[in-house]
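job 3f2a | input accepted
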Amino acid sequence: MNDMKLSFEKSRPGRRCSSPPSADIPQGYAASLLPAGALRSKPPRLPEMSEVDVVRHYTALSRRSFGVDNGFYPLGSCTMKYNPRISEELAALPGFSDTHPLEGEAASQGCLALMHGLSGALCEITGMDAFTLAPAAGAHGEWTGLLLIRAWHESRDDSARTTILVPDSAHGTNPASAALAGYRVQPVPSASDGGVDIDALRRLAGPDTAGLMLTNPNTLGLFERRIEDIAAIVHNAGGLLYYDGANLNAIMGLVRPGDMGFDVVHINLHKTFGTPHGGGGPGSGPVGCRARLADFLPSPIVRKEGDTYSFAEPPRSIGRVTGFYGNFAVLVKAYAYILSLGADGLREASECAVLHANYMMNSLRGVLELPYEGPCMHEFVLSARALREETGCSALDISKAMLDQGMHPPTMYFPLIVAEALMIEPTETESPETLDEAIRVIANIVETARRDPAALHEAPRTTPVGRLNEVEAARRPVVRYSFEDGD
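job 3f2a | predicted structure (487 res):
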């Protein structure tokens, strides 16, 4: 495939996309508003291109992007599910897309009604009593939920709660969010079955425990069967139980975190409820809690009195966590998804996600090593450890070879407790034919590794960029275009 030129390389002096009208402000007025040190000595060197060349340039770039609209995207733990187009159309309705966060409550009753309805639906799905829709992403939701836990302990004058327990299979954002919230992080080891080591948890939970962050099912795709014991251990120690909602797509409509004993929940709307995911956002990470924590929720929340909706501040609120009220368009899409599927549809989505994962897992049993036995939930983890020892081909080699087959690789080398891990999440929206093709591709790649390992080391061959030196790219990234004259 030919290298694609940058816009700077396509630039030719004097070419334009449009002819804007002359400015109606005095010459130099804009510059007078800025301090002298912030002014350029000469205009920026921007690409000069015709409109058709700009359109072709960005269209060509878009064709190089991979997403669920292009092909199979089994990125474990990320739930790269298809986003229904009807949700996009509803979010584009003028009453939603043309509104402004400073418009005022009287002019925003429809938007407030939607936020109130979504909060209620999320409470029903998770078993929580109250929600904030403000957090702008999953990790932001984690941090917000941890601030709720901190505020609750402080309200009880319990300053000794300085530690958050985090399983060693947890998402990396869990310990990071806990540290950012001011807590000490204490890892909890996994047992031989892939779940939390109950005996270790009993030893670690104590007077300094503020809470336990837990994903259920966990990142191995396994449901914590002893979740009630886990909740009892944490609660008896005086801590709270936090639910990382990254894997909620496996259980919605089947079991609720609140019924398992969780006190605080965050949800990734961009993973579970059919809103866009990837490319830097926008995401959304609403946080729910039990009634005893509701007074600490970020402000504002939406309250309904009669037929009128308004913003309100919880009496002991931790304050704002975003500038306004969350990524509203994402909230619209999530609510549309929930209403279009209904309770039965949400349950069926989870059932299909679990069915697809188990079908793929059992079909690939023996192709690669399965580190933990038993039925999985919405995702599963394979290991290429034995294959690497036999052939020298790693999980990375398998993933690179999948690119040549038009498939996005699964998550690699996570969770860290599995050597040469490949975490596969097919989601509920894929057809049996797509699953069978993915199984065939992975099996063929493994067979190639045994027959011709050098071929895998050279993959990918069909992508715009071949095998990169990833260490060099990470340590010496080239992120700025350099002109020939060095400017």
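job 3f2a | Residues 148 and 168 are 23 Å apart (CA to CA).
job 3f2a | closed
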